[in-house]
């Protein structure tokens, strides 16, 4: 299974709407980095509104992809983390402190624009 | 009422199957969305441990209903190499697989009861329960 990555001007938009298994998550990590490379995108929003579980593996993959994209020169914002996901992540002891987040896609795009203008 | 069902963990996708079944049972027991996510996440961690460290095993679920309380009991059973240092795997941040090391201590925090029995060379059984409040 592949997660679609949409391009909008200088941004890449991803809405994860599938139950994430390990393989799909790793594949997505590779696909996103390739897409950043080929499109020259400077900002990425990964929307997690439809994701109702993030375990330690998925959290690591998401945290890593933010750092990897940053290395390449693209800023990533995670949006739409559900209340139940936020609670379980903290229970797990995962704080994702260096990961930029926003309430929803709209706020995520505003945050990206601000970060890229700085 | 006792109703037990198991998911065998042999391939990566079985991790997803196990947490989906666990969530379905949690919904039937009457857990809210946050506890459903806690239970599904705990199952995911337990199933991944089986897949990564034992190669194969199973996760069994049981809906518990007594006069006083309701809950879900989860057993993760494998016949893998076992855990040589139990204290170490319960430490936050300890990992031999390059993961976050959040697995077992995380499961303990997500659930209400947590018990682990492991014999070197014979396997590991982790039993965990979440009660409906």
TrEMBL record, chain A:
InterPro entries: Bact_StressResp_Reg, STAS_dom, STAS_dom_sf. Pfam families: STAS. Residues 1-112 form the STAS domain. It comes from the Bacteria. CDD domains: STAS_RsbR_RsbS_like. This is RsbT antagonist protein RsbS. It comes from Salimicrobium album.
From TrEMBL, chain B:
The keyword Protein biosynthesis does not apply. It holds the Pfam family HATPase_c. Residues 34-133 form the Histidine kinase/HSP90-like ATPase domain. One of its GO terms (molecular function) is kinase activity. InterPro entries: HATPase_C_sf, HATPase_dom. It comes from Salimicrobium flavidum. This is Serine/threonine-protein kinase RsbT. It comes from the Bacteria. Keywords: Kinase, Transferase.
